[in-house]
Amino acid sequence: MITLLVGLVIVGALVLVGGEVYDAVTEDDGIAALDVPLLVWSMGHRTPDLVAAVNAFTHLGGPVGLPIIAFVVLVLMVVFWRSRTPIVLMVLATAGSLAITSIGKTVVGRVRPPQADAVPPYEWAPSFPSGHALNNTVVAGMIAYLIIRRLEHRWSRTLTVVLAAVWAVAIGLSRVFLGHHWFTDVAFGWVVGLAWLGLVITAHRLYLTLRRRPAPPEHPVS
């Protein structure tokens, strides 16, 4: 039960933070005050070579690149670990993240930054939340969780978490740099992605705990 309690507390805290970001977006205050300044800063620091590099990188976390990466990693896990757990957890995690992204875009319907301030190819779907930020947070986080379960040393576990975090953060920031999203779109994606990831991991840890619990002894019938 401690696992469930800790997990739910973390998820609850992340949901509250996500709610604050959402309120800032709908009321145009708070952290939303960073949206325009960060876009202006990005525009002022773009160079042809940097834009090309960031564009290539952001596509790795896009609707084509990310599924390919996830598929390759899952195949390797299943082959070498001989376990279907990675498939079950990844399918559950990504199905939820895609649903959250779709619902958020439909409900909020936020307009993306002006095309004059963005880098082609342009995107037309609603801006909030950033699917790149949300889905990469979930996929990278789930891959890290699955790997960590197989690692023994703390330094290797820490490195795995750091690499996953750097990937998700970098993908999110690339969306702001290219003018495809406002910063709050990305921030909400990170936070809600972590919340959903935490919920899936908590459920899995609880399942493992209950599965390991010994069955109650049978009493002979008198």
From TrEMBL:
Membrane spanning stretches: 64-81, 88-108, 128-148, 160-182, 188-208
Taxonomic placement:
Bacteria, Bacillati, Actinomycetota, Actinomycetes, Propionibacteriales
SMART domains documented for this protein: acidPPc (SM00014)
Segments forming a coiled coil: none
Q: Name one GO molecular function term.
A: undecaprenyl-diphosphatase activity
Where's the Phosphatidic acid phosphatase type 2/haloperoxidase domain?
Answer: 87-201
Q: Does the keyword Hydrolase apply?
A: yes
Please report the name of this protein according to its UniProt entry.
Answer: Undecaprenyl-diphosphatase
Q: What highest taxon heads this organism's lineage?
A: Bacteria
Q: Respond yes or no to whether keyword Amino-acid biosynthesis is given for this record.
A: no
What keywords were assigned to this record? Hydrolase, Membrane, Transmembrane, Transmembrane helix
Task: Name the EC number(s).
Answer: 3.6.1.27
